[in-house]
Specification:
379 residues, alpha/beta, Rossmann fold, 8-stranded mixed beta sheet, 6-stranded parallel beta sheet, 42% helix
Length: 379
Amino acid sequence: MTRVVLVTTSFPESVPGSEAAGGFVSDFARALSRRVNVTVVAPGARDGHAFSNSVDVRRYRVPMQPLSLLRPLNPAHWPAILQTLRSGRRTLAAVLDHQLPNHILALWALPSGYWARACARQMRVPYSVWALGSDIWALGRVPLIRAVLRTVLRDAAHRFADGLALADDVSRISGMSCHFLPSARQLPVANVTQARSGPPYRLAFLGRWHQNKGIDLMLEALEQLPKEGWEKIEAVRIAGGGPLEHEVRGAAAKLKAGGRPLSIEGYMDADEAAALFAWSDFVCIPSRIESIPVVFSDALQARKLVIANPVGDLPRLLENGAAGVLAKAPTASAFAAAIAAAVTRPGGANSASLESLRRQFDVNVIVERFLDQIEPAPA
């Protein structure tokens, strides 16, 4: 049976809903384990070995999580970076020495792809890289790191990216082909509720309360929304957490004092997130910077429409209007206009084009597309 080792810098361990990309990595690993043997090499508070949902997880100790907070341009972070680099490579090498796989998948290009390349060359095992925007658009700006990134991508057997524009950038940097492979988690949405066919509608936001995610833009847009728009809204629920918590709670208190039906909630695990999307009619994505957010695929799984800012790949995904309403610009006033347009249109999300889009973001379909690339076709 095919054996695949996933090496990643993000995999859930503790706080539900706050593990960033790790939530979908866990779901991908579990879905993949139904087809092949899977071992995950992932960061943790300590070195360790455990089984999680039929997946063999080997933890390497890191000084802080999430690792996305480590900044190579900050000299104070270099001791933690070096410790992480040593720990991850050592653990991956130990796993490969114990059980030689047929393939290594690095999530993401750096540092996971760097470890995968080094160990794959030594063990003569092919590796692939699944890139995130932070790999290409942030680390790729640093000249020395960009050279390492190019080598890691070029030497990989296959390159994947979780965004359409991102895949183009990976191809440009590496000079090699790159496949679009979306990131999506598997929500327990068996009991999907039908979106309402008319107002009043329910709006939901779930994500980090960070400037990049535009939660402040959404709250400002709700302040600007005229009375006629609010009359078509039954309730707005905002869930998550992050560095803008003080601003979020302050703006929410002002809206509630004005009689607006808005509630603030914390991080959610998969069951709670599924319940939120089942409750909603529209899922709000007010991001300033984005490729394709995981919450977009969450909405598709729940068969709910989105209200989104025109950033990253969202304009291409929403170009025919089947999946929701796109703002004209990533501003509060434009997002307010998009909300107003959404709540005046007929509800529901049942078109054939929406179903086709939903399938692209199904975890099991994503696994099939990955295996189609790494497993040789039968003779």
